[in-house]
Write a sequence for this structure.
């Protein structure tokens, strides 16, 4: 499997209203917006250190979740697929993302009734896996599958249990390696990959971002970091405590291409 060299990353700074974002079910811990902004700056610095040119979009306080730019669009070669996100309160975020991507890619839109979040779309070497979750449904998957089929790719659906997105519990490192939090998907669908499992208590760390020969990992999970390094990958640790409170993580904060 070939390793992609990425040149650009779309990022959007944390809005002042980030503490009003959609929160995961269960007890909520207050979000420190200033700390989230600082952690986002460190994230952007890391991307730049890996050779990416950042395409920065201004935050919009009307959309508390807008820093999670992964969800409104998916890049497939020269195409930018702007999706119909599963959370109605987030739909307005797509406008600025579409405008930014239109300068670089041919834009295709996936409309209703299907829903699809970019966080449910996992590209792994030569195919796409699309999570079926509370945010992405079968109709959205079928629409996406037909678009990528025209571009020469295969897409498979993956039912996901007890997770916001597929990439919340499974990410691709490159060279056929997947980091997986067990118990959320039928892992037999990944039989052609080398799986790096994480423990139940470390499952948040399954979301990693592989960029140009390095893997961004979440700080505070030494066992996951060690397992990834044992598989031959170099890592960079980043703090994401405030994004975790919002159900977000590393891949959520950029669109790389």
């Amino acid at each position: 499997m070939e390793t992609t060299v990425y040149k650009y990353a779309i990022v959007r700074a944390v809005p002042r209203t980030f503490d009003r974002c959609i929160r995961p079910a269960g007890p909520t811990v207050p979000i420190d917006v200033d700390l989230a902004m600082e952690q986002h700056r460190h994230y952007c610095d890391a991307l730049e250190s890996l050779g990416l040119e950042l395409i920065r979009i201004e935050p919009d306080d009307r959309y508390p979740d807008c820093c999670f730019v992964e969800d409104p669009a998916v890049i497939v070669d020269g195409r930018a697929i702007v999706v119909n996100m599963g959370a109605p309160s987030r739909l307005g975020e797509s406008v600025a993302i579409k405008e930014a991507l239109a300068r670089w890619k041919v834009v295709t839109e996936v409309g209703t009734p299907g829903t699809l979040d970019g966080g449910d779309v996992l590209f792994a070497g030569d195919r796409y896996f699309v999570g079926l979750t509370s945010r992405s449904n079968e109709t959205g998957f079928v629409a996406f599958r037909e678009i990528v089929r025209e571009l020469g790719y295969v897409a498979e659906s993956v039912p996901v249990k007890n997770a916001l997105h597929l990439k919340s519990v499974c990410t691709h490192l490159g060279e056929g390696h997947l980091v997986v939090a067990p118990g959320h998907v039928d892992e037999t669908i990944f039989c052609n990959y080398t799986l790096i499992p994480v423990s139940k208590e470390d499952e948040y760390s399954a979301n990693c971002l592989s960029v140009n020969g390095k893997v961004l990992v979440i700080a505070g999970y030494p066992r996951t970091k060690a397992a990834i390094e044992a598989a031959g990958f170099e890592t960079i640790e980043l703090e994401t405590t405030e994004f975790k409170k919002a159900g977000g993580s590393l891949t959520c904060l950029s669109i790389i291409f």
The longest strand covers residues 127-132. The chain has one domain: 8-256. The chain has a mean pLDDT of 96. Residues 8-256 form a domain with the L-arginine/glycine Amidinotransferase; Chain A fold (CATH 3.75.10.10).
